[in-house]
Amino acid sequence: MSSLLPAVIIPAFIPSPSQGVWHLGPLPLRAYAICILLGIFAGYWLGRKRWVARGGSAEVLADIIMWAVPFGLVGARIYHVITDAELYFGEGKHPIDALKIWHGGLGIWGAVAFGALGAWIACRRHKVPFLAVADAMAPGIALAQVIGRFGNYFNQELFGKPTDLPWGLEIAPGHRPPGYIDFATFHPTFLYEAIWNLGVIALVILVDRRYKLGHGRAFALYVAGYTLGRAWIENLRIDTVNEFAGLRLNVWVSMVLFVLAVAYFVISLRLRPGQEDISGGPAAGGDKPSDTAADADEPADTAAETPSSEEAVPADADQPSADTAAPGSDKDAKVEAGSPTDRPRD
């Protein structure tokens, strides 16, 4: 009976995608761009849930993200072009290629740095604590990286050294770098990084749920967790990059950022324990702090300036009358008992 069943062939490698671009009439739909956009939406969705759960306004966060995303995309491309300038400038190169973002080439460090700058500007406009936004968005940034990395799969780029492991990634001959033409399968570093980032997401969410991380510590934990994995994954890659002292540039950047993130986490925990309360004020979509304070002060000032009926002059108080007025006085000294003296208001 079993001999009649068709044989199931399981490939001993991850096949390369058949194509990375589809055309909808004259409009090309590129898998790389689709993965980036899906990652942005997924990251925003997760960050929004965390922000609202803390009492923040979804509308306020949406406006902040509208600043952060374009800044991040521009920064990601700038970082890539600067650190891989030899790909676009020099003899035989075409500088215009630096603008062709659909061919791949987005640096996460530039995305985070410029995205943070855009978010900071928006936070200043809304008078919202920037570090609270960074904490809420930290796992969302990692989720965006998880999905975005699959764009590298469709572009058949940023893979690792040759391997014959069952999960080796098949790379078409046209995408293999010089010296590796005779190798068919390579380490799927895009997949390694995606799986690692899923662990970072779980780490940040679980630790934050247990200890209520605040003042940028959830974001610092994300940076430390991501860079720890990126350092060893980066060493598997074989794409041509700049090196210093025998290490790839992004390995150095990962190590430096890991140390800074851990140091910030420890120092911040000692100096500013606890978590910011964003359930009121501008973060929750309310009035600005200065406006709220001004409104709160007005009733107190009015009460101080306008006497109440209980504070009016009592009826038996000594009051000058026509009988006791000084002789020859031509002033009307009559004051009705119990009526307060009129006073101008500010």
Automatic annotation (TrEMBL):
Subcellular locations according to the entry: Cell membrane
HAMAP family on file: Lgt (MF_01147)
Transmembrane annotation, as ranges: 30-48, 60-82, 102-123, 130-148, 190-207, 214-233, 245-267
Name by which UniProt lists this protein: Phosphatidylglycerol--prolipoprotein diacylglyceryl transferase
Protein's job: Catalyzes the transfer of the diacylglyceryl group from phosphatidylglycerol to the sulfhydryl group of the N-terminal cysteine of a prolipoprotein, the first step in the formation of mature lipoproteins.
Gene: lgt
Protein EC: 2.5.1.145
Family in the record: Belongs to the Lgt family.
Organism: Kribbella orskensis
Keyword line: Cell membrane, Membrane, Transferase, Transmembrane, Transmembrane helix
Keyword presence, Transmembrane: yes
InterPro entries documented for this protein: Lgt
Keyword Transport (UniProt): no
Pathway: Protein modification; lipoprotein biosynthesis (diacylglyceryl transfer)
Residue ranges of the region described as Disordered: 277-346
Subcellular location, principal: membrane
An MF annotation (GO) of this entry: transferase activity
